[in-house]
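Here's a chain:
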Amino acid sequence: MPEDPRHNPDDDRVDGRDESPAERADRNWSEVLQELRVLQTGTQILTGFLLALAFQPAFAELSDGQRTAYLSLVVLAALSSIVALAPVALHRAVFQHGVKPAVVRYGHVALVTALITVALLIVGVVAFVFDVVVGGSAFWWAILLLAVIIVTLWVVIPGIIRVRAREIGEQR
């Protein structure tokens, strides 16, 4: 029986793509980089917003608790950027050492970690603004609403899609 021309014998997975493990690692690395670009842009905007706040006249009117929250958000913004850039730093350190699959795995973990820190940062920044502008329970409502939206869009819906894809795959 002739071999299927769509299947590369060096391919380590049968998933409908005709690619070698090295080609898959290259493609996955490109996807990680694209996701890093999107994530980093949003993080940079939030970081810039936070850094600009300290130079506003109203900043002097913040309570000690609000100052602590603000500084915590600045640290979280910096941490988000550092974690999101970690895969790029690793790639530079091991460039042309033949470890791209490990770089891709590291990039995946770093991206998930960065998404968690960015989720905390988004919720924190909005809650901080609500606390400063409106005060009272608006702070807690902002946290609750945004947390529910993030969990729904970033965890629940992707989980549902994964389960449905697995069920469709098992039916084939």
About this structure: Residues 1-5 have pLDDT under 50 and may be disordered. The helical segments are 21-53, 64-93, 100-133, 138-171.
